[in-house]
Amino acid sequence: MPAKPTSNAPDPIRRNEASRKAILTAAFDLVGEVGFGKLSIEAIAARAGVGKQTIYRWWPSKGAVLFDALLMLSEDQATGRPELPDTGSLEADLKTVLRATVRELNDPRYDEPMRALNTEIVHNQELAAAYTERLHEPMQRLKRDRLRKAQQAGQLDPNTDLDLAIEMIWGPLLNRWLQRTGPLTPEYTDSIVETALRGLMPR
Amino acid sequence: MPAKPTSNAPDPIRRNEASRKAILTAAFDLVGEVGFGKLSIEAIAARAGVGKQTIYRWWPSKGAVLFDALLMLSEDQATGRPELPDTGSLEADLKTVLRATVRELNDPRYDEPMRALNTEIVHNQELAAAYTERLHEPMQRLKRDRLRKAQQAGQLDPNTDLDLAIEMIWGPLLNRWLQRTGPLTPEYTDSIVETALRGLMPR
Fold this sequence. Notes:
The first copy, chain A, is built from nine helices and no strands. Chain A is mainly α. Chains A, B: InterPro entries: Homeodomain-like_sf, HTH-type_TetR-like_transc_reg, HTH_TetR, Tet_transcr_reg_TetR-rel_C_sf, TetR_C.
């Protein structure tokens, strides 16, 4: 029977976890510096201080690494189960959320990786499925839950389709960001929220 | 003094124009068949029946060829100066326009080239500038003109920023298309128009 590892023995699970975090952090930092097109597994390995084969053993492509890096980030930020704010005022809460999104999108450390992911999934079906399941759908559920509460509180038209409502609120912002067709400012997102909610309120 | 070409002599301008059209048509057809990633100058040349060097003499990259192909298409469709419909009812006109857009986006012959262009410009600054100047801005002007008329006719709030209004109307649709987050149907675009205009009407 093999001896149990003592507290002084190297712990392979903990060591793997440390390598994994180093790789994901390196991928996230590098894509912000050189862009997705020039990102390479070699460079990620060198920055993380691991061998290339370690990365290839865990991920099939640089897109997959980057995707897990973004996921790690959103998990780190969330304390427990993430939720959208609920102060009772849908308008105030949406303004808070969209202002926070704009702060992220204006930060080059986030802008480039998220831009890379958003364009890569257009051509990569496998990554698109993972994106939908692990990032997009969980966020959609949070948004739907918050809007449903507002609908029950009489702040949204009872006949409004919640997926359409989500697109009326977040679509203009994401489109302006991806197409770079204008500045992303708090005043801009406040106007989106006000205009969208006027269109979505009970008749 | 060189003799003027007679009607029977080969006309180099007309011959160049025929080659140009053959190349752009080949690029447009091929990208719909194989996608932008696998599109190659070699394949475009073979399909168009010209030498590779002919293409490289006129365009710096496959992205530039594809871009001109889309521009040729939109010029062919427009009889003279293009305009958005103006029947007097902004709601009816926008429904007509968005339904036509959805018919195009649901056609694989258009979907793939436009998707390729929309993602390529995210990483390619030169192509992005050409896109803005030659495709995006002319369309923005048409949209702004139509919305300004509606504003003058009292169908839109006089304080509404027209660029914001454009994004409230077209943003959700473009975002759903690029992210493939739902079906593009006439019922869907009608709902967008109704919801957006309710938010944008005079208070």
